[in-house]
Amino acid sequence: MSRLAPLCLFAFSTVAAAAAPATPATPPDTGIDGLMQRYDGRVPGAAVLVLKDGQPVFRRGYGLAVVEDGTPVSPATNFRLASVSKQFTAAAILLLAEDGRLSIDDPLKKWLPSLPAVADAMTLRNLLSHTSGLLDYEDLMDPADTRQVHDIDVLHLLEKENRTYFAPGSDYRYSNSGYALLALVVGKASGSGFASFLRQRIFLPLGMQATYAHQDGVDEVPTRAYGYSEIDGRWQRTDQSTTSAVLGDGGIYSSLDDLAKWDAALYDERLLRRDSLRLAFSPATKTPEADVPFYGFGWRINGDMLWHSGESIGFRNVILRYPKQKLTVIVLTNRNDPEPYPLARKIAGRWLETER
């Protein structure tokens, strides 16, 4: 998700275990290793992948995926992607549009008719591009209620609110609410649940065997990293919050190895048609956000760079793609801080500089 959820610490524990270092998946690189130094050792860690011309030129884990038992991070470690998940939600909508099951210009209430009159003018396109004006569901939750909410609960919260931040299509405001509702639309239009649709139409066809829109009690995330926060100078497990079960805006778990397959599919038509990819990667709206002049469908756009970050209670991640240079940098971390975007930009710069 795009920002930290309210601090509701599930499975709260204090870190007190030692660990063996992660085995390098590629030879050490002093420049990258120096940038990632704070993630190495007996601390919540990170995984870094650099793809150039479709090949992994750097692929390595740092630190620990599970601090309590010393499990190291590896390229196969699955991290909660948080808002990096949004590109998969957008892709699901685009696949259903290709199938003729929906149109991105459908009124939102065609699929979710229980929404109040204020949603009459909203379209799926508005939700994809964060131009709906929907209220943030996080602000509508009862802070005294520690139960996890799901995508359907987001709908129920919004059903009670006949107001928006602005008229649909008139402005931009990043919206987790919109992507939670898009997950429900995917479920209705496909006739299967959102998680099942992603698994059958995206993850398995691309060979992303270990990637899940995770549902507790339904699936098990293999090789899972758990999230941590530094509290009073000590790393403590903060893997779940009250919003961590919402899937459409941030509930996917994946690894470097599976995300490499996803990245490859964005260069050709093995998953989405060229016109659908063009829609995802083209400016749909301007934004006032730093380094985000434009937003597409599930992607931030800054010149030649397509990117997205993801942030939830114990995870911070980022993917940067430079399609013209055939360069991708992915940094996944299982800690609350710092934001890895500046690190990823520095890593990308090592390859971009050589092409100037």
Task: Write up this protein.
The protein is 26% helix and 18% strand. By secondary structure, the chain is α+β, with helices and mostly antiparallel strands. The chain has an eight-stranded antiparallel sheet with strand order 2-1-15-14-13-12-11-10, sandwiched between helices. The protein starts with 29 loop residues before the first helix and ends with a helix.
Span between termini: 35 Å
| C-alpha Rg (nearest Å) | 19 Å
Give the oligomer, counting copies of the same chain as homo and different chains as hetero: single chain
Strand content: 15-25%
The structure class reads alpha+beta
Low-confidence stretches: 1-23
Question: What average pLDDT do the residues reach?
Answer: 93
Question: Can you write the helix and strand succession as a string?
Answer: HEEEEEHHHHHHEEEEHHEEEEEEH
Largest sheet: spatial strand order? 2-1-15-14-13-12-11-10
Question: What's the number of extended β-strand segments?
Answer: 15
Largest sheet: 8 strands, antiparallel
Helical fraction: 25-40%
Kindly summarize this structure in a few lines.
Helix content is 26%, strand content 18%. The protein is of the alpha+beta class and 356 residues long.
What distinguishing features does this structure have?
single chain; 356 residues; disordered N terminus; three-stranded antiparallel sheet; globular; eight-stranded antiparallel sheet; 15 strands; alpha+beta
